[in-house]
Amino acid sequence: MITLSDVHKSFGDNHVLRGVDLHVARGTSTVIIGGSGTGKSICIKTVLGLVTPERGTITVDGQDVTKTGDRDAFLARFGMLFQAAALFDSLPVWQNVAFRLMRGSLKRPKDEAREIAIEKLRRVGLTPDVADRLPAELSGGMQKRVGLARAIAAEPEIIFFDEPTTGLDPIMAGVINDLIREIVTEMGATTMTITHDMTSVRTIADNVAMLHGGKIRWTGPVADIDAAHDPYVDQFINGRAEGPIETVR
Amino acid sequence: MRALAGIGAVTLGLLAAIGRVAMFFGATVTHLVRPPFYLREFALALLNIGWLSLPVVGLTAIFTGGALALQIYAGGARFNAEAVVPQIVAIGMVRELGPVLVGLMIAARVTSSIAAEIATMKVTEQIDALVTLSTHPMKYLAVPRVLAATLAVPLLVGVGDVIGIFGGYAVATGTLGFNAAAYIQNTVDFLELRDVVSSLVKGAVFGCLAALMGCYFGMNSGRGAQGVGRATKGSVEAAAVLILAANFVLTGVFFSI
C-alpha cells in the first residue's frame, strides 16, 4: 500500500535519510524504531508531503504522492497523531476532534460533527464534559487521547502515530498502546507508528522496521525481532549502552 | 576586497529577504481570491485586530493630540502664530501622526501577537497538523489576518484621527483659551478630502504590512522558545521599519505635487 523507494533527505550537512526502502502492506501495523534523530518522523512526513525528499519515490496504492491531483482527497485518506498531540490551542476539544468534519470535502453539519467528536472522545476513554474544554486545560495523557480521537474522527484508511507514548507515565502509555491496537483492529486501517518504546512495539506492531544510519537496517514481523541476529537491532531492543550504535555519555 | 565582499553578501541577503517576503505576499493574495474562505477566522481576526485595539489606539491618539496642541501653541507663540493650533493639529494628526502612530501601535500589539501565535503553532507541529487535516496554513492563518488588518486598520486610523483632534480640541479649549465653535470650524474648513483619503490609504497599507510581517516571521520561525522569541522580535522590527518607509513613500505620492 505505502512504498518508499530510495528516499533521501538532508537538512544542510545532516543527511537524515540515505536511501530508505520500506513497504507497508494494506491493513497492517508497521512500527519504525530507531534512536532519536535518526529520521523516523521525517519518513512519515515525506509520505504526507510535509517534507519533500531530494531523491526517491513514495507511492500510496501505486500513486506517486508528489503527483496527487486532488490534495484534499489524498490527505483525507490519512489521520495522524502527533508527538505532542498538536491540538489547536484556540479551539475547544470537540472542534479539534471534528476539525476535518467541519471543513473541506468531508464537511458535515455542525451538530453532526459535534456528535461524532463526542463519540470519538468516548471511544478513547474521555467523557463528553471534556468536549467544551480547551486543550490547555487537559493533562498530557488526555491531550494524547484527544489527538488520537482527532486522528480517527474521519475514519481514515491510513493512520500515522508519531511517538504515541512519549512523555506519558507507564500506565497511561499502556492505555494508549491498547487503544491504538483496538482502534486499528476494529477500523482495519493501515498504520505506521514511530516509537522507541519497546512495549509499544510489542503491543502495536505486526511488522517492525529499524531505521539506522539513514537506511532501514532490519525489517520483519514483530515475532521475529528477538531472533533478528542483527547487532544493531539486538542492542536497541535490549537497551544496551554497549554495541555498534554509538552512544554519547 | 573583503569589505566589498561583506557589503555584497549583506546586499544579496537583503534582496533575498525582500524576494521571500514578496513571494509570501503574492501567495497570500492568490489564496485570498481562491476558496475555501475561513469566515470564522476572518471574523475573529477582525475582532482582535480592530475592536480590541480600540482602547490602545484611542489612548495613544488622545494624548498625542493633546501634546501636539501644547507644542504648536508654544512654538507658534514665538512668532505670534498661536491661532494655527486647530489647523496644525488637524493636519498633523490626519496626515502623519494618526496613521503612523496607529500603525506602530498595531505593529506592537498585533504583529507581535500574530508572530508569536503562529511561531508557537509551528514549533508545536500545529501547522503540520493543519496540513494533514487538508487545511492550507496560508488560507487558514495568513489570509484572514492580513485581510482583517487591511480592512480594520484604516477604520482605527479614522477613529484615531478623530480622537487625536478631540485631544487637541480639549487641551486648546480647556487650557489655552480657544473658542470651541471656532476651533471645530477651523479644523473642518482646513482639512481636505485628500488628507482624509491619504490617512485611510496609509492605514490600509500599514495594516497589511503589520499582519503580513507577523504571519511571515511566524511561519518561518526557528525551533524552540528562542525561535518564537526571534520571530516575534523580528516581525515587530520589520513591521515598524516597513511602516515608516511606506509612510515616507505614500506621503511623497499624495503630497509631493
Can you put this structure into words, describing what you see?
The complex is a heterodimer of chains A (about 250) and B (about 260). With about 250 residues, chain A is of the alpha/beta class. Chain A has a domain at about 1-70 and about 190-250: Rossmann fold (3-Layer(aba) Sandwich), CATH 3.40.50.300. Chain A has helices at about 40-50, 70-75, 95, 110-125, 140-150, 170-185, 200-205, 230-240, and strands spanning about 1-10, 15-25, 30-35, 55-60, 65, 80, 160, 190-195, 205-210, 215-220. In chain A, the strands form two sheets. Chain A has a six-stranded mixed β-sheet. Chain A has a four-stranded antiparallel β-sheet with strand order 2-1-4-5, covered by helices on one side. The longest helix of chain A has 18 residues, at about 170-185. The radius of gyration of chain A is 18 Å and the shape is globular. The model of chain A has no long low-confidence stretch (mean pLDDT about 90). The mean pLDDT of chain B is about 95. The interface of A and B includes residues 45, 103 and 104 of A.
Outline the secondary-structure elements.
The complex is a heterodimer of chains A (249) and B (257).
Chain A (H helix, E strand, L loop, with lengths): L1 E10 L2 E11 L4 E5 L6 H9 L6 E6 L2 E2 L6 H5 L2 E4 L11 H5 L12 H14 L16 H13 L5 E5 L7 H18 L2 E5 L3 H7 L2 E6 L2 E7 L9 H8 L11
Helix pairs in contact in A: 4-5, 5-6, 6-7
Chain B lengths: L1 H31 L6 H11 L4 H23 L8 H39 L2 H7 L4 H38 L5 H11 L2 H27 L4 H32 L2
Q: What is the CATH first-level class name of the domain at 1-68 and 192-249 in chain A?
A: Alpha Beta
Q: Within the largest sheet of chain A, what's the order of strands?
A: 6-7-8-3-9-10
Helix content of chain A: 25-40%
- Helix and strand string of chain A, N-terminal first? EEEHEEHEHHHEHEHEEH
Class per helix and strand makeup of chain B = mainly alpha
Q: How many whole angstroms does the radius of gyration of chain B measure?
A: 21 Å
For the largest beta-sheet of chain B, the strand count, sense and barrel status come to: none
Low-confidence parts of chain B lasting 5 or more residues at pLDDT below 50? none
Number of strands of chain A: 10
Please state roughly what percent of the residues of chain A sit in beta strands, choosing from under 5%, 5-15%, 15-25%, 25-35%, 35-45% or over 45%. 15-25%
Please state the oligomeric state of the protein chains shown: heterodimer
What's the CATH superfamily of the domain at 1-68 and 192-249 in chain A, by name?
A: P-loop containing nucleotide triphosphate hydrolases
The N- and C-terminal alpha carbons of chain B lie at a distance of 43 Å
CATH topology of the domain at 1-68 and 192-249 in chain A: the name is Rossmann fold
Computed CA radius of gyration of chain A, to the nearest angstrom: 18 Å
The chain pair with the largest interface is:
A-B, 24 and 14 residues
